[in-house]
Amino acid sequence: MTITFTTNDVEVSLLGNTIRLDLLNEQISKIYFVKRYRDVLSISTPKGQMYIFDYGVAISWGIIDNKKSQLLNMVQEHVSETNLQKDTERFHFKITENASVSMIDDTITLPDNKTMTLLAASHALAQSAKLGRFEVMAERTIKDNAYLSQTLAKTGKIPLSRKKLSMLRGALFSTKSDILLHFNLLDTPEFFWEYPEQEQKYLTVSKYLDLKPRVELLTMKLATINELHEMLAAEQNHKHSSFLEWIIIILIAVEIVMFLVD
């Protein structure tokens, strides 16, 4: 399918954690032509194209702002764990007949304006947006807990109660689990198993967006979070052991006193 556009803008919107595509499909197919490609809903409008990814990302190609807002409002009704603050990124695109796909200075050059070409590029853009969210989560977690290792290095202990340590461990585990649960989203999409001829277009855009090195760096950050989690676990076990030792000492002392009294 060939698409016509009113602008040359590509807007990437990270809307939330997940999007219920089945319910959205039922609603939006009454107005526009819609087709499902595994984890993506392709929405064709008279002047532009939008792709909705079930992991919370929407990519719009060449759609004017008021029409785009209308579509996103419909999509938003089916988003779970909506982002409190709108997270968007804009790129530009141009169609150059028979050219190879390329991306320079945030401008994507495409050989045609067919649905599959746009979808191939959209996969990379959507993954980059989701990866960006994971990067922020990991960086914030490491930064917020950096004082723990510094304090441990200076004093040899972490001045927190066992309850507080448990809460911190829970927060670290939650962040790590949330990222790992969706980590497979950053692999090459299964879409390209069915359409291998489109994969090179995806790889070109993903290379410009540094997806592979960013994923590797995220893996290292996850390892750091895991080390923080293990450090807190060790400290909590130490505090628990110390608590038990004091109980034993007190019981022995009480028993000695009772023996002397008798």
Automatic annotation (TrEMBL):
Nucleotide-binding among keywords: no
Where do the TM regions start and end?
243-261
Please name the Pfam families in this protein's record: DUF155
Q: Which domain of life is it from?
A: Bacteria
* Keyword Nucleotide-binding belongs to the record: no
Q: Start and end of every DUF155 domain?
A: 50-218
Name residues in a coiled coil: none
State the UniProt keywords alphabetically: Membrane, Transmembrane, Transmembrane helix
| PANTHER family in UniProt | REQUIRED FOR MEIOTIC NUCLEAR DIVISION PROTEIN 1 HOMOLOG (PTHR16255)
Q: What name appears for this protein in its UniProt entry?
A: DUF155 domain-containing protein
| Gene source species | Paraglaciecola psychrophila 170
